[in-house]
Amino acid sequence: MSGKPQVIIIGAGISGLAAAEKLTKFGFHNYKILEASDRIGGRIHTVEDGNPDEKKVELGATWIHGQKKNPVFELAKTNKLIDEQELKKQRKRMTVYVTEEGETIGEDLVDKVWDKLEQFSEEADEFFESETPYPDINESYGAFLQQRFDKFLQKKNNSEREKMERVLLNEKSGECAYSGCDSVDELSLKYFGSYEELSGKHVTFGRGYSSLLEVIKRNIPDEKIILKRPVKTIHWGKTMLDEGTFEVKVECQNGECFYANHIIVTVSLGVLKAHHNTLFNPCLPSNKQQAIDKLGFGTVDKVILFFDEPVLGRDIGCLSLMWSSDKKDLSKDGKIANWCRKMSELTAVYGNAILGWVTGKEALEMEKLSEDEVTENVMTVLRTFLRRDDLPTPVKLIRTRWGNNPSVLGSYSFVKVGSSTQDIRYLREPTSATCSEKPVLLFAGEATHESFYSTTHGAFLSGQREAQRILDLYKNI
Ligand SMILES: Cc1cc2nc3c(=O)[nH]c(=O)nc-3n(C[C@H](O)[C@H](O)[C@H](O)COP(=O)(O)OP(=O)(O)OC[C@H]3O[C@@H](n4cnc5c(N)ncnc54)[C@H](O)[C@@H]3O)c2cc1C
């Protein structure tokens, strides 16, 4: 292929890197990646930050969600990146279901409720494929779940009912972390089943998710990636620029400009929501703007406390937090912080550390606090649920602040009440310029994948998809 055309990829997350790798592999070398931050990877971010086992800590993506037909799993397997030991360890450790009163809820009861909840979730999945006009796009998964659950509870006695309601609350918080929403009431019922689960166990990386980036990056020359270049405005398609050669000028925040014929935009839906009006000149077509507004993009954060010794007990892998819905405060030594009630579990990870997930408004609440406050809040939860005053002092805290990270502004996307998979198609549709029939703005990133949105494999495939679009345009050159 000759020196032209020129492509600029905005963002060096997994989708941008996948696009670059594919272009290189097929002999298209005329591209650059402009990345706002000082590292590649975006929402894949592994750190080595001080824990006794020297395990790598994942601030962003942790799991490969499913194996069959998962390109991320394939890459990890071929390159021997999967953590087999962690898998074995997880299988051996048990989960305990504890209330804030320090009482244990029996596994039998929990399993009975999980089975029911799974059945309801499968029923919700079926609305997506069915031809029926209901539910309409304004109905929520949360309302459906509650309605089905209330019916199930009718024949239960009071004591059983109270425990089962706690399991439901726990499930709702867990679903928020999985789907990336603030509340299950935000999730579209009609499109709940549009997210495709891939079969096979969910697995992790031995040397961290970033080892996957190293593999993808092997085929991308270093000089192609320009770090610390936040793009301010993409001027596209009104007139041909630079003596009629290029359709697009990319203006960076530092004033530097780059010219190109095609742009692959991979910034997160959070960044698009906040900045699409200024990021594109002229503005994006209205169907794309509406899709950006309507689709959901929530915050999911991790809070990790490191200890010198195990706090949950050696055999316990997970403390499942069975909060009561009436928010009574049973802590002995302080108030349970509101944000902590959104954590559905505390899991043993990285040797003696424990990990909690927090989502939505509560995650943003946590992000405002100091590290000392976050540490104290989680310790209060531990003391309350474990009924122990003698817990060791944590040696370190790592917590994420994805909602306030200016390069992402949230964590991952979902189909929100009022939106549909058509909005995902509008979002990923390439946009042609008035001065040229060729698509000049191409869109990749997890939120542009119709069935694997929110995942690394969705992001990876979306980058390859847009690279292929460019390769197809010039296949006869
Ligand atoms: C806490 C958390 C846990 C997760 N867990 C999992 C998991 O277990 N499994 C899974 O499959 N997925 C998980 N995900 C989701 C997964 O990480 C993402 O779907 C995926 O990494 C997104 O890749 P991307 O390339 O689409 O976007 P990003 O990784 O966001 O890449 C976009 C890039 O664009 C850059 N950028 C933004 N604005 C500009 C600008 N103006 N100019 C230049 N560059 C810009 C950003 O800095 C970023 O590097 C998780 C995410 C989070 C936050």
Do you know the CATH architecture of the largest domain?
A: Alpha-Beta Complex
Number of strands: 20
Low-pLDDT runs: none
Name the shape in a single word. Answer: globular
Question: Going across the major beta sheet, what is the strand order?
Answer: 6-2-1-10-20-19
Outline the structure in words.
The chain is of the alpha/beta class and 477 residues long. It has two domains: 7-42 and 206-297 and 410-473, FAD/NAD(P)-binding domain (3-Layer(bba) Sandwich); 84-202 and 300-404, Polyamine Oxidase, Chain A, domain 2 (Alpha-Beta Complex). The chain is built from 13 helices and 20 strands. The chain has helices spanning 14-25, 71-78, 84-92, 107-129, 141-153, 158-179, 210-217, 269-279, 286-294, 360-368, 371-386, 421-428, 456-473; strands at 7-10, 31-34, 46-47, 57-58, 94-99, 225-226, 231-241, 246-252, 257-260, 262-265, 280-281, 296-298, 300-306, 316-322, 345-349, 353-359, 396-399, 412-414, 431-433, 436-443. The strands form five sheets. The protein has a six-stranded mixed sheet with strand order 6-2-1-10-20-19, covered by helices on one side. A six-stranded mixed sheet has the order 5-14-15-16-13-17, sandwiched between helices. The chain has a four-stranded mixed sheet with strand order 9-8-7-11. Helix 1 runs parallel beside helix 13 (456-473). The longest helix is centred in the N-terminal third of the chain and has 23 residues, at 107-129. The chain is globular, with a radius of gyration of 24 Å. The protein starts with 6 loop residues before the first strand and ends with a helix. The model has no long low-confidence stretch (mean pLDDT 92). Bound molecules: flavin-adenine dinucleotide. This is Amine oxidase domain-containing protein. Belongs to the flavin monoamine oxidase family.
